[in-house]
Amino acid sequence: MESIFNTKAGAREDMKSPLRKRIVRGVGFALCLGGIAGCTVGPDFKRPDAPQVSGYTTTPVAEQTVASPGILGNEQRLVTAQVPAGWWKELNSAKLNSSIELAFKASPTLSAAQATLRQAEQNYAAQSGSTELPQVNANLGAQRQGTNSAAMGLPGGERTSNLYNASVAVSYELDLAGGSRRGLEALAAQVDYKSFQLEGARLDLAANVALAAISQAQLTAQIEASKEILRAQQEQLDITRKRLNAGAASENEVLALQTEVEQTRAGIPGLQNRLEQSRHLLAVLTGQFPGAADVQSFTLADFSLPADLPMSVPSELVRRRPDIRASEALLHAASAQYGVAIAKLYPQLTLTGNLGSQALTTASLFGPGSLIWSLGGQLAQPLFNPGLRSNTRAAEAGLDAAGANYRQTVLQALRNVADVLRTIESDAEAQLSLVTAGESAHQSLVLIQRQYALGAASYVQLLQAQQQAQQVRINVLAIQAQRLFNTVVLYQAMGGDWVEPR
Asked: How far apart are CA 469 and CA 98, in angstroms?
């Protein structure tokens, strides 16, 4: 990535020696005059080199996750491929598909990004028309004036007259040093920046809708399981109170069980609150008012894990992720602005022309003898303006900052991918352990149920086994949702399904 400064480093060398600076500037100006505005000063932008690394982590990531027994479709393979178009459809949820399509149509965030892109495009078009083509203006004027001949020692006294004029004026600034072209280059880079921001907003919107839907599904399942645990705890408490009345249990047992019941009961409102917040978030993401929204209700059964997860190498990632491309566009704009600042140190040549008519009466305004015309040229060369030098150094510092920001964006993107790849691997292993624990808890529950039917186990033991099985179920549901989360985050980290249109 350091090579992005090769051209700028060459420009810096030209600035080191005052004598060399004057010689280079003089030769460059002569060549510009000979080529009629054919040169452009400042560094030519070069796309940053791709990271020279082949992987994201220090140790290889498993190409396939471990499988959990008894759960279909929980194995995932990392394959070298681009993110599929409409990647959210890989989760196999019709409800999610409709929610994301609604968000694309109604999201204010997306509408704002689209509007700012149009604004950047029109700013470029306006500046292009102002700098690449001559400016032509029509003028029509009239004035009444009075003169006194006596003031000049002549007879005649005071005289008044009318003067009418009509003209067309043409002006054009020859872009000798290429400052205007560099300015247009900077505006074009801003258009690219807004385009990449729009694509990034689209990617983030789809991912946020998917994550909110999965969160809603997890919370719904967690609330149901928590209520089952609360029911079992309450039954256990009621039985223990009866045993206390019969003298077969102690007060400490009742207090301990009552503490567990109230702790479980206290956790449910918080879960319900988070569930409502997830619905509010989904409403806003899809452009609806939270109080009047028709939001889909999701369960974990509405989703399935994609069997194949796309993964590209880092050198391809930096050419696809919208945030990296946006940072690259800002770097391009900073490079062009540096060229604009350098161009201000060179001569500026402006050509003007005027063709019109001037007469004392409107009837003779366009008659014979009323024609007037003028041609002019102005060459301006800064001789003493210390501010221009500071302006150049400021633009150079801006270019350095843009380069550093680009490198940071790339590093952060690679870290995002590395983190999610490790999480996908570790969560699959955690799911295997939790599923195994769930099977053990279920077998234990079945055994206690048989013993209870034969009178070999108490009802309290049965309720405890049911509670343990439900708690393990909550953990299994949480890791199931987490793996769905990881899949969405990987699609997002890989830059989504965006393809550069040019």
From this structure: 35
